[in-house]
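Write out this protein's structure.
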Amino acid sequence: MAALLVIASGNAGKAREFGHLLADLHLQIQPQPEGLEVEETGDSFAANARLKAETVARATGCWALADDSGLSVRALGGAPGVHSARYADTDAARIARLLRELQGAHDRSAQFTAALAVADPSGSVRLEVEGICPGEILKETRGSGGFGYDPVFFVHEASLTYAEMDKELKGRIGHRGQAFALLAPRLRELLGAG
């Protein structure tokens, strides 16, 4: 029987992306229970990922995988950073605020970071990895895929925004894909999956 892994997130876009990235491991994947909220009080992506994995693992008695990720923009001193999801109420509003705050900025360099943590059923973190994708913030949106800041995050390596990339390309060069490439072999070993 496949090992059960709970995805410690209430974000549907993130859960779909996890499912795609974990497909080769042949795990039984389920989202965290509805109504379970974890307050992200960490001061880094890694701290928030640990907090979510520990809390969801203890609450469910299952292995839990958590991610905390976000966008850090150099001209904004690293903002929105750990507040990326809470920068505004909707994706469109988050992008609008970001572009407004970057008006007149010459340095539009930025990076997406994904910190992943896996906790065992007792809530002990057993694995942690981090993936980073450098890029820059465009002055206007491009592409219709993805979610969040994807339409304004341009990756020079691909000459595309995240929103213009197909799942395979984003999964290979994106921050979450890079983190999963580091995580997958260790997770397979830990859970005896695949």
